[in-house]
Amino acid sequence: MALLSFSAADVAAQIAHARGCSTFLPNWNGPVGNPALILIVGNGVHLRSNGIDGSSTRIVTTERADPSYAFAADINPFRDTDWMGARQAAFRDLTGQFYTDILDDVQMLIDRGHDTIRLATDGHTIRVFARGAADYLIGGTYDVPSGLGGTFRVILMDITDTQALVQNRGNCEGFDEMLPYRVPLDALIEVDDRRVA
Q: How far apart are CA 48 and CA 38, in angstroms?
């Protein structure tokens, strides 16, 4: 998973544009009747309005980008020298258009005064990530996906804005012997006390 950060003011401008339009770009299923945000992965990574108006062509493309779109931090071809490396770190070789349903969730964060909007992506799905490093407890117990279809129980050892350093604890079959490892911040799952034996 990767976390993408956007300026809330830039995203708010795209939402305002979408809400000011009465015609919208179609998605893969056909015509769309509501304002939305589209995530474009191509020449940078940016969020843009799905609205169509007479002031611009606003054609969706992965090859061209408009500096007025809401670009992800460090993945802006107009400002960042290593934007291509940052894009590949987040999406590997994937490019394309993601038609999202995040507009209302993002608007709620903007209304609450958030300066930054963060989205979590695994390259196929996009979701709003509202938590920050300060929301987690160093030394606390969490679950993380194991990659084997289940979860590992872990102790949080250290944290940054995007990643957590964890150590397996309380698992069977020798998994607790693994060295500490990093997981994306949004991979930490709160332990439901009712599940704790």
A: 5
Give the pLDDT confidence score for residue 196 in this predicted structure: 37
Least confident of 15-19, 38-42, 131-135: 131-135
Exposure letters 156-171 (e unless 16+ CB within 10 A, then b): beebeebbbbbebeeb
Say how far apart CA 8 and CA 11 lie, in whole Å. Answer: 5
Q: By C-alpha distance, which of 133, 45, 134, 127 is closest to 90?
A: 45
Is the per-residue pLDDT at 82 higher than 70?
yes
CA distances from 157 to 1, 140, 185, 196 (A): 19, 8, 12, 20
Question: Quick check: 168 and 178 in contact, CB under 8 A?
Answer: yes
User: What radius of gyration do the chain's Cα atoms show?
Assistant: 19
Listed by start position, the domains of the chain span 3-52+65-138, 144-196
* Measured CA distances, 83 to 72, 74, 91 (Å): 10, 6, 12
Closest-CA residue to 151 (of 196, 90, 91, 118): 196
